[in-house]
Specification:
Elements lengths: L4 E6 L2 E6 L3 E7 L4 E6 L4 E9 L7 H16 L4 E5 L6 H4 L3 E8 L3 E9 L4 E9 L6 H8 L10 E6 L2 E6 L3 E8 L2 E8 L2 E9 L1 H7 L5 H7 L4 E7 L4 E2 L2 E12 L3 E12 L4 E8 L3 H8 L6
Antiparallel strand pairs: 1-2, 3-4, 4-5, 5-9, 6-7, 7-8, 8-9, 10-11, 12-13, 13-14, 14-19, 15-17, 16-17, 17-18, 18-19
Length: 294
């Protein structure tokens, strides 16, 4: 059976990975952080990134430093060997300094450390093989899809089958990733953007009709002024969408304006929301149109 890859995106870093690998841990921020994915049983991909000023920007020196940390953690039975630069596609080598390596102990991994001059960042990605038998073809295929910044200035976020793109000026403030509800809260200065996916819409709408859901959602902000709804003439991915607007009181009587879109996907039984303050209706709709549903 052919391997299916899906795009994963987090804090401006993107990979295409096997479609059954999902986010299982994350921490940090855009400048400095960590994320890992598992296959439902074992961790399969670990990604770390940090400002290059923390260590020498030379990727070989960073690899040697990481090798010493591995030796300390895994013991003397750990071995590490370098893999030639031709392992990575030329288009990636042309824009990045990178080194690829393989380490083996109780498990094995093929890893890569790279430097992104655009973000002034050092990154580490390693594909874990719990049984100890590495797959260079899979590793090369995944590494060849790496992107650590985009020319269009946008950021892809993708986890648990939920995928969307946002303007690059926003930074993740908080994420609530629990069964039945995915909520992302982004911030730039005092302005915010929220992107959400709710499951079991048919159960929610038994108590609150879909047409009233925007008003219920806005109540959670606790700062909203009266709401204006536009219920006709809007579609997103062939679904009828409700546009909502209102003013909000924030930050010691400072007022702002909120634009939002909400729609339900009956095929998935899910509700989708994109909303932001102090930005245009057009920009909110641009985010909403990247939110993947059936």
């Amino acid at each position: 059976m052919a391997l299916t890859l899906a795009r994963f995106g987090w804090q401006g870093i993107e990979f295409s990975v096997p479609s059954d690998w999902e986010l299982n841990a994350y921490r940090g921020v855009y400048q400095d952080g960590f994320a890992s994915l598992d296959d439902g049983i074992h961790t399969r991909l670990r990604i770390r990134w940090e400002p290059e000023k923390r260590r020498a920007a030379d990727v070989a020196a960073a690899r040697d430093l990481y090798a010493r940390a591995l030796q300390k953690r895994l013991g003397r039975k750990m071995s590490l060997e370098s893999i030639g630069p031709e392992f990575l596609p030329k288009r990636f080598r042309d824009g990045h300094e990178a080194t690829v390596f393989l380490w083996q102990a109780r498990e094995a991994a093929i890893g890569m450390i790279w430097r992104c001059p655009e973000r002034r960042m050092l990154g580490l990605a390693e594909i874990i093989f719990p049984g100890g038998d590495t797959d260079r073809t899979l590793s090369r295929r995944i590494f060849s899809t790496l992107a650590d910044h985009r020319a269009d200035g946008r950021q892809l976020w993708a986890a648990y089958g939920f995928q969307f793109e946002i303007p690059g000026r926003y930074r993740l403030q908080h994420a609530e990733l629990v069964p039945g509800r995915l909520r992302f809260h982004f911030q730039t200065g005092r302005d915010w953007l929220r992107v959400e996916r709710w499951s079991a819409t048919s159960q929610w709408t038994k108590e609150t009709p879909l047409d009233s859901m925007p008003e219920e959602w806005i109540k959670t902000l606790r700062t909203a002024l009266p709401v204006t709804l536009e219920k006709a003439g809007r579609t997103l991915r062939a679904h009828a969408a409700i546009r909502f607007t209102c003013g909000t009181r924030e930050y010691l009587l400072r007022k702002s304006h909120l634009n939002g879109l909400m729609w339900a996907c009956a095929a998935e039984d899910r509700l989708y929301v994109a909303a932001a303050n102090n930005t245009t209706e057009k920009e909110v709709e641009a985010v909403a149109r990247t939110m993947v549903c059936a």
